[in-house]
Amino acid sequence: MRFTLWNTGADTDEFFALADAAETTGWSSMCLNEYVFHPVEVNSRYPYSPDGKRFWATDTPYLDPMTILPAVAARTSTLRVYPFVTKLTLRDPLLLANQVRTASLLSHGRFSLGVGMSWMREEYEICGIDWDNRRKRFLETIEIIRLATTGDVVEYHGEVFDIPALQQSPGVPSPIPILLGGHQPWSIRTAAAVADGWCGVPKEMSEIETTAKDLLMQVEKAGRDASAFEIHAGAIDARTVDDYRRLADAGITDAIVMPWMAENLADSAGSGMASATAAKTDSLKRFADEIISNF
Known about the structure:
Elements: E1 2-6, H1 12-24, E2 29-32, H2 65-75, E3 80-83, E4 86-87, H3 93-106, E5 113-116, H4 121-127, H5 134-148, E6 153-157, E7 162-167, E8 178-181, H6 185-194, E9 197-203, H7 205-221, E10 230-235, H8 241-249, E11 254-257, H9 259-262, H10 266-269, H11 274-290
Parallel strand pairs: 1-2, 1-11, 2-3, 4-5, 5-8, 8-9, 9-10, 10-11
Antiparallel strand pairs: 6-7
Helix pairs in contact: 1-2, 1-11, 2-3, 3-5, 6-7
């Protein structure tokens, strides 16, 4: 099992300090989630809270992972990076392909692309994008990114996008891994059928084990190699070495962890001040010493 440091914050320098500490203490990756903006009025149901309401304020700080993560990768030499997840259907596929290709080249292949569909209809409406064809747009965007990042002359003719022959050069030496997010049955089936892996929001271990079992079954059903399929997941109740071994036995390849959340350091470590960075750094080092060193 590998370990991914999950961080959100507002202090840009903090990402570099944490990346340096993570790389030297055995962490494999860093991920960062994305919000493009926060509509003040939201009627869409948030799928990961009991009451369907978002639990953060509109002034909650989120920075662009496609800007920060390539910079983190350029600063480090072994740390992998990926957005967890980028809102794929809100983006133009060719513009995103150019960003993704550049990030992969800049990081010498240490960039993976975590993708998802926003749960918030209001985001689509504000961006002028059709909510009703989002799944088709999502699948076509993945296909276009894979074609465009090869560096070859390509064209694409789908139901949503119609792209004439063009080229984005240079291409990447190896295909960029695509990790598909989401817990709905469609997301699980789609990840198993077309993606290189899956990534999910933190749940209890028992639920993550069930999801992993379903994913691997779906991968095999699709006639693909389950041993090559990555499962990136966090468990809100995982605390001990045995807990993480249990997740590894379930098929989790990459544990997504925000160690200061587990240590209840949110008040001191969430503000982005210098003391918060120090607290987060100490926390990730403790986790590496107590957990990662056993793997």
